[in-house]
């Protein structure tokens, strides 16, 4: 023991000093564990798009009870056009709509797209119109490309989905609904279709 510790031990008594040292060590271990848990939770949230637990919802897209055939990877397609994006989007099926939401507890259309692409290591802006401006138009949408819609709840580009092929998309429609499969070129979405875009590789 150093001279200071000897003096303190003499003044306080060795038992009291030992008690304080043990309490300090316990407090240090507890604080270290709490910090480690927080760091692990933050990292898990970043890696899973905000979902630290298992995804809710069905495993694959279903329209009218019929599974959708998703094409296999195609050589030579740009980054966003690989069906892997579609498979990442499927993990979000059934998640409820929440305006401004960005987790499996609730998500909106543009954060769905942002999270799916982030899981593939591709960073996109947060808002649909910014995603529109950050991507390249294509007249031949492939699975994994983005499909944009205008004049839905506001003027201009206001909605985005992920094209899965066969004229269908995975998107987060609106309040009271869930991430689901919907037609791109017909019905409500067809009337508001603003074009397909591809993520730059």
Features:
201 residues, endopeptidase fold (from Nostoc punctiforme), 6-stranded antiparallel beta sheet, 6 helices, rod-shaped
- Strand-pairing-aware structural class: alpha+beta
Task: Quickly count the domains.
Answer: 2
Q: Provide a count of the helices.
A: 6
Distance between the termini: 63 Å
Percentage of residues assigned to helices: 25-40%
- Tally the beta strands: 10
Q: Could you outline the blueprint of secondary structure elements for this entry?
A:
Layout: H1 3-12, H2 14-47, E1 62-63, E2 66-67, H3 83-90, E3 102-103, E4 106-107, H4 109-119, H5 128-133, E5 136-138, E6 146-150, E7 157-165, E8 168-171, E9 180-183, H6 187-191, E10 193-198
Antiparallel strand pairs: 1-2, 3-4, 5-10, 6-7, 6-10, 7-8, 8-9
Can you summarize this structure?
This protein is an alpha+beta fold and 201 residues long.
Q: Can you describe this structure?
A:
The structure is a single chain. This protein has 201 residues and is an alpha+beta fold. The protein has two domains: 3-47; 62-198, endopeptidase fold (from Nostoc punctiforme). It is built from six helices and ten strands, in the order H-H-E-E-H-E-E-H-H-E-E-E-E-E-H-E. The chain has helices at 3-12, 14-47, 83-90, 109-119, 128-133, 187-191; strands at 62-63, 66-67, 102-103, 106-107, 136-138, 146-150, 157-165, 168-171, 180-183, 193-198. The strands form three sheets. A six-stranded antiparallel beta sheet has the order 5-10-6-7-8-9. Strand 8 (168-171) and strand 9 form a beta hairpin. Helix 1 crosses helix 2. It is rod-shaped, with a radius of gyration of 25 Å. The N and C termini lie far apart (63 Å). 30% of the residues are buried. Mean pLDDT is 79; it is low at 46-79.
